[in-house]
Amino acid sequence: MNEYLIDTFISRKAQGSPVKLFVLPYWPEYSTLQKLSKEADIPVTAFVKTEAGVESLQIRYFTNTGELPACGHATLAAAGIIAELYKKSAVDFITVEHLTIRCVRDNEKVFMTYPRYESSSYPSENNLLAILKLSSVRAVFFNTNLETVFVELNKPEELRSFVPDLDQLKSSVSDVKELVLTSASDITGVDFLLRSFCPWIGIDEDPVTGSVHSVLTPFWTAKTGKTDLIAWQASAAGGEVFVRDMENYVEIGGRIRVLKAD
Length: 262
Known about the structure:
Order of helices and strands: EEHEEEHEEEEHEEHHEEEHEEE
Number of helices: 6
CATH topology of the largest domain: Diaminopimelate Epimerase, Chain A, domain 1
Strand order of the largest sheet: 1-2-3-4-6-7-8-17
Helix content: 10-25%
CATH class of the largest domain: Alpha Beta
Structural class: alpha+beta
Number of strands: 17
Radius of gyration: 18 Å
Largest sheet: 8 strands, mixed, barrel
CATH architecture of the largest domain: Roll
Strand content: 35-45%
């Protein structure tokens, strides 16, 4: 078993989001995977099973509270490590829900292919919106695939300064796993901003998140007319995400940095 500590979606100004990655020859018991994740004590731990002659590798993701169906920044970390270990420019991962995520190294970045998800309206009378107490809400929408509520704000400064009541968030709804705030960017060279809160799955604020760009990419493409965009995750750590709208799918990319390898 090999283990790695990786920062993902980094830049000169971004610390990115940490991932602990274990590369395994077989799947241990669920309880062992959960124990290793708790010991790592970071938002998400990923596990990849390698087999000789197998092109598509199985990947699983855990937080302190349980298993996730998918995780963008953890997949990015795994892709960078596997590409280096096996000298491959592309690798396919298969998640526990049988989603195939193709990852391709593009110079210093890694890009992941994700489904292109549409969104639906979210009821304005829902308790979740009432407790947020946001003053510049422009749009609210929901994606069932990710079980995520998205709130577009008019003011980037409100996105940056927002401090959620995490206990209230958790108790307000039971059909949501993530809340994402987004706004147009106030940074030169960046198209849009976002922050992500996931107290329902044991992550107060995600330093950088990848999978929500399955929804945000077509949303911001429609608003800007651009198919290649740069996002900045305005968490304390910060993160730079490169996205491409390919009509039938999206590509989500970023840089990684290996901090430790054992």
